[in-house]
Amino acid sequence: MSKDKENRLSRGIFWVIAEMENDIKPENIFAIRKPCNQNGEYENNEGFSSKDGTAQNHKVTWATLGRDITKGKSFDYYPRGRVEIVRNKATIWMNGNILPLADEIKKLFSLLNVAVVQVKEDGSKHYHCHFD
Questions:
Q1: 56, 58, 77, 115: which could join 73 in a potential S-S bond, CB 3.0 to 4.6 Å?
Q2: What residues form DSSP beta bridges with 76?
Q3: Are the C-beta atoms of 17 and 24 separated by less than 8 Å?
Q4: Would strands 116-121 and 89-94 be described as parallel, antiparallel, or unpaired?
């Protein structure tokens, strides 16, 4: 990803590639980011994996990644989350095991200039991982 895109407001999905709790650190975040405006509208609608074609799906996207990233594990093995933006408000949905990385996720998705950023621990089975 170019430096220009790295510093742009983005939505997307992420995992923390962590085998043990002490592996939960910024350098182990793997993210799929798509630049968007402050209303969450994408500049380019190509490359999405959700059923409706407007976002990324963790399971489908994981299946396209190389073993160097997946380590041969299933999409729900590592803790994960997503960033959504609507009307200049961002919501970070994430597995509770990686809550300490919320500030890093904000930086990674360039959320620092969004009016409101909410971090929500999703304790449902949907975001469970091998730590749960």
A1: 77
A2: none
A3: no
A4: parallel
Q: Which residue has the higher pLDDT, 55 or 64?
A: 64
Residue 74: pLDDT band (50, 70, 90) is very high
Q: How far apart are CA 38 and CA 96, in angstroms?
A: 26
67 Cβ partners below 8 Å, 6+ apart? none
pLDDT at res. 126: 84
3-state SS string for 12-75? EEEEECCCCHHHCCHHHEEEEEEEECCCCCECCCCCCCCCCCCCCCHHHHHHCCCHHHHCCCCC
